[in-house]
Amino acid sequence: MENLVDKNLFQGIYKNRKVLVTGHTGFKGSWLCLWLKQMGAEVCGYSLPSPTSPSHFEELNLDMKSVIGDIRDQSLVLKTFEEFQPEIVFHLAAQPLVRYSYENPDETFESNVMGSLRIYEAVRKVDSVKALVSITTDKVYHNDESGKAYSEDDRFGGKDPYSASKAAMEILTASYIHSFFNIDDYGSKHNVLVSPVRAGNVIGGGDWAQDRLIPDIVKATIEERPVVIRSPDSTRPWQHVLESLSGYLLLGQKLLEGNSSVAGAYNFGPSVDEDITVEQVVKCLKKYWNKINYQIERPDVAYHEASLLKLDSQKAIDSLEWSPVWSSFEALENTITWYKDFYESEELSSLECLNSYIAEARKKASAWI
Ligand SMILES: NC(=O)c1ccc[n+]([C@@H]2O[C@H](COP(=O)([O-])OP(=O)(O)OC[C@H]3O[C@@H](n4cnc5c(N)ncnc54)[C@H](O)[C@@H]3O)[C@@H](O)[C@H]2O)c1
C-alpha cells in the first residue's frame, strides 16, 4: 500500500520506532497498524488469527511482522518481545464481545485478565519497553444509571462477564503500576510509563464482528434483505475508530517522550451532546448507500434497557489537548462509504479514510498534527 500519510504527525515520534500491537488481526488493531506503518514505524503484531472473514487486517496486507499466538502463552509472548525488542506496546488483544462472554465466560476472563498479565510480565522483563498503552472500555465503570458521564476515578463495575473481565484487567493494571511501574520510581528503578485507556463502542469500515449495528446493516444489505431494527429510539453517540486511535497514539507519544506527568488512565469518548437515534442512523446510512433497507419491529413487551454509559473525556482534553475530529454524522458517512466502496467497487478505501480524517484534524489544528 502506497505511503501517503505525513510521517511528522505526533511529532514524528513513530518514525522508525519499534511498536508492538497485540490484537493486530482485529478491527481496531488493524487500523492502528495501518496508521503506524504509514508513519514509518516498524510494527510487530501478536494475536490469534483474525476473528472474522472477511478480515480488515488481511485485506490491508501490510508489510509488518505478524506473530500468530495466544496472549495466554507466556513463553511465546516473551520470545516475541525478546526477539522484537519493542519500545512501545499497544495492548488491544481481548475477547471483546458481550453476548459471547455470557456463553464463554472462561475464555473471556482468561484472555482479558490472564492474557493481559502475560503481556505485562513481558513488559516487565524486556528492557526495551518504555511505554505501555493498555486498552479497555467504557464498560469498566459501574453504571449507576444516573446518566452522568464517568470520569477516570469513578468506581469500576461490570455486570456481564466481558465488562467484569475488563474491570478486573484495570485492577491488574493498577497493581502493576503500583508494584512495578510506580511513577515515583520512574527513571531510577524502572523505565516504563503505563496508561490504561477507555473508549466506548466505535464504528468504521472493516468491522465484521457479531452483534454490532453497522456490521449487521451491511450484512443484511449485501444479502439483499431489510435489516430488522428493534430499538429505533435508542440513542447513543457514534464515534469513528480513528478518534480513539488518535487518542492512544497521542498518549503513546507523550509516554515515549518520557513525560511521566501524563502517565495514568484516560477516557477517549465522543462528545457527550451528540446522541443520535438508531433510526436516524439507518436513515443517514441509506442516504449514502441507497441499497440499505430496514424494517422497524418494536417488541410487544417493553424491556428495561440500561441507560447509556457516557464517558467524560475532560482529562484527555486538558492534559493531552486531544479532541474528537468528526461529528457522529461524519463518522457514519465515512463508515458506510468504506463498505460501499468495498462491496460495490471492490476498493479498499482505508487509506483514503485515514487521509480524510487527518485533513479534517489539520483544519481543526488537532494537537497531534
Ligand atoms: N470495537 C469497539 O467498539 C471497542 C469498544 C471498546 C473497547 N474495545 C476494545 O478494543 C480492543 C480491540 O477490539 P476490537 O473491536 O478490535 O475487537 P476484535 O475482536 O476485532 O479484535 C480482537 C483481537 O484480539 C485477538 N485476540 C482475542 N483473544 C486473544 C488471545 N487469547 N490471544 C491473542 N489474541 C487474542 C483477536 O485475534 C483480534 O486480533 C479490545 O480490547 C476491546 O475490548 C473495542
Please describe what this structure looks like.
- This protein has 369 residues and is α/β, with parallel strands linked by helices.
- It has a domain at 9-202 and 239-270 and 308-325 and 354-363: Rossmann fold, CATH 3.40.50.720.
- The chain is 40% helix and 14% strand.
- The chain has helices spanning 27-38, 56-60, 74-84, 98-103, 105-125, 161-179, 213-222, 241-256, 278-288, 314-320, 328-344, 350-363, and strands spanning 18-22, 42-47, 65-68, 88-91, 131-135, 149-150, 193-198, 202-203, 227-229, 235-236, 239-240, 266-267, 276-277, 294-296, 310-311.
- Strand 2 (42-47), helix 2 (56-60) and strand 3 (65-68) form a beta-alpha-beta unit.
- Bound molecules: nicotinamide-adenine-dinucleotide.
- Nicotinamide-adenine-dinucleotide is lined by residues 23, 25-29, 47-48, 51, 70-72, 92-96, 111, 115, 135, 137, 199, 201-202, 209.
